[in-house]
Amino acid sequence: MFDNLSQKLDKAFKTLKGQGRITEINVATTAKEIRKALIDADVNYKVAKSVTDDIKEIALGREVLISVSPGQLLVKITHEELTKLMGGEKQEISLKGDPSVILIAGLQGSGKTTFSGKLAAYIKKQNRNVLLVACDVYRPAAIDQLKVLGEQVGVEVYTEPDNKKPVEISKNAIEYAKKNNKKVVIIDTAGRLAIDEQMMNEIAEVKKAIQPSETLFVVDSMTGQDAVNTAKAFNDRINFDGVVLTKLDGDTRGGAAISIRAVVEKPIKFISTGEKMDALDVFYPERMASRILGMGDVVSLVERAQQVFDEEETKKLNQKLRKNQFNFEDFLNQIQQIKKMGSIKDLVGMIPGMGKMMKDLPIDDDAFKPIEAIIFSMTKEERENPDLLSGNRRNRIAKGSGTSIQQVNNLLKQFEDMRKMMKSMNKMQGKGIPPNMKN
Ligand code: GDP
Known about the structure:
Rossmann fold; 434 Repressor (Amino-terminal Domain); disordered C terminus; SRP54_GTPase_dom; AAA+_ATPase; EC 3.6.5.4; ribonucleoprotein; Signal_recog_particle_SRP54_M
């Protein structure tokens, strides 16, 4: 996410390297580089200018402490200003009313339907009874798509395939929700490839008729300034409450994320980082600023882990590790859990400094494939008792998984090393921390 921008900003701060203090001249050079980086990232020009003017002014006015270098100070000020620019505090969606109604709007292909499914899953996790409503009366495929997503996340989908009137469908859906004890209704509307009058009228009419407690505008972040302009056009017409930025996993520039709030004056509320139903995050301006500046985002990483890993299961696993009973079945399980947390590249970017360190390495989600194939080719007994894996069996596994005998041996060796490490850690824990390791 935003790799190009992070690298360019890093370069901008390096112009201050070796400088003992902040001066008009050196801070102006850095501010100019920051501005260039932002404009290259497709940040609106006016926004880029105003934020870098602010950064410069604040830097000149702030006394440099002895312990902080001018470069570090500039990173800190930029972090503060980017956070402010993106809205400061996180903004919740409003779930007022019984049922509360959320209207989803946006262009076709922006990721509206996918987001509707994700939002339904997100709200369902808070133990609220959700109803999804398919209101795209032009594309029957969109109705089917929502049904599939609804099934995936276990949320009922309301449809009226023969009705071509979105206002009617929405009203009927809300009535249905009232009768069936649904507490939140999410309405996925029809999009078009570009802004057109009929679409705007249609959404405005639905909004007027059903008075949603929250209207969210979904936009593809990869379209940069176009995303900002489309958001502005929609907002002028339907006055939405918040923005959902999608496809951030493919966005290396970040212009929309940075400027949309300043231009449209509406907060970003969610970000979507993949096609899977759990690739959804609440938007925190401060954490996003950290990620843009390559400072990582450990808080979000931990939150994602908490969503994916079950506490009881983790406890059991810990016990197994302690008793050195961890086997390939558990290993496979762990890989599958990690994959649920999102794309590996994205996860690496959340660890401070890691994104920068690993930017040239080919990290992709296929990295787990050979490992999984090898484990899948083992029998149940072999997975539970890796000591059974003789030369013959290893050969069979290599053939079965389409890997080489070296790959199988490597995996077994790594697994063995891991078990040894666990064993020595357990011993250490038994004896307490050695005195030379205490601080
Ligand atoms: P709609 O026409 O606005 O309802 O858009 P869809 O929900 O059908 O999404 C269009 C395409 O974008 C689909 O192929 C989705 O799988 C994909 N998509 C949606 N959100 C994301 C995302 O956050 N990341 C990625 N990589 N793809 C996404």
